[in-house]
């Protein structure tokens, strides 16, 4: 009876251990951040975003310079104008400043939307390639091993080289 019980326990341990080994072999990892940074589309998208941001920055600087020039002019003419005119001029300057702030806020929203519009197709392409390679190699799970994603140890199969090959990079 003891032998049968020992045999049964040994069988359970063997089945459990082989199940763990099988589960481990069905898991791979990839540093998605490294993959995305290596994609040529990402570099082009970042370049477009930087160009758009420089355009907005230039426009905002021009508007701010215009406000400063007008404020300086109004400051120099303050003594020769009536108090009513000076109040209107101050209000005009304040209106211009709030328009610049609104423009800056809208520019930031536009940049964020442009970033989403540019990066989403790149992320979708990377995800599709990861899924394709993962399935082709028989993996059930692919874990993102990018820094800060909670993976502390990634010694299993790394799909980054295979996915780069799939994408032609």
Brief rundown of the structure:
This protein has 169 residues and is mostly helical. Helix content is 78%, strand content 6%.
How do the helices and strands line up, and which of them pair or pack?
Layout: H1 2-25, E1 27-30, H2 32-38, H3 40-77, H4 83-136, E2 141-144, E3 157-158, H5 160-167
Parallel strand pairs: 1-2, 1-3
Task: Please give a structural write-up.
The model is unreliable at 1-23 (pLDDT under 50). The chain starts with a helix and ends with a helix. 78% of the residues lie in helices and 6% in strands. It has helices at residues 2-25, 32-38, 40-77, 83-136, 160-167, and strands spanning 27-30, 141-144, 157-158. The protein has a three-stranded parallel β-sheet. The chain has 169 residues and is mainly alpha-helical.
Q: What is the count of β-strands?
A: 3
Strand line-up of the largest beta sheet: 2-1-3
Structural class: mainly alpha
- Let me know the average pLDDT: 85
Q: What helical percentage do the residues reach?
A: over 70%
Determine the N-to-C terminus distance.
Answer: 63 Å
Order of H and E elements? HEHHHEEH
- CATH class type: Alpha Beta
CATH topology: Protein Binding, DinI Protein, Chain A
Major sheet description: 3 strands, parallel
Beta percentage is 5-15%
Q: Using only CA atoms, what is the Rg? A: 31 Å
Write down the overall geometry. Answer: rod-shaped
């Amino acid at each position: 009876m003891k032998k049968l019980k020992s045999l049964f326990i040994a069988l359970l341990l063997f089945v459990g251990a082989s199940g763990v080994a099988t589960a481990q072999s069905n898991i791979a990892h990839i540093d998605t951040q490294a993959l995305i940074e290596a994609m040529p589309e990402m570099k082009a998208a970042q370049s477009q975003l930087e160009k758009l941001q420089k355009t907005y920055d230039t426009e905002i600087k021009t508007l701010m310079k215009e406000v400063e020039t007008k404020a300086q002019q109004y400051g120099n003419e303050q003594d020769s104008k009536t108090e009513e005119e000076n109040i209107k001029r101050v209000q005009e300057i304040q209106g211009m400043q709030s328009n610049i702030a609104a423009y800056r806020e809208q520019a930031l929203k536009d940049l964020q939307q442009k970033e989403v519009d540019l990066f989403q197709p790149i992320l979708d392409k990377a995800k599709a390639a990861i899924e394709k390679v993962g399935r082709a190699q028989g993996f059930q799970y692919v874990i993102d091993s990018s820094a800060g994603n909670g993976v502390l140890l990634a010694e299993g199969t790394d799909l980054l080289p295979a996915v780069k090959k799939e994408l032609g990079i």
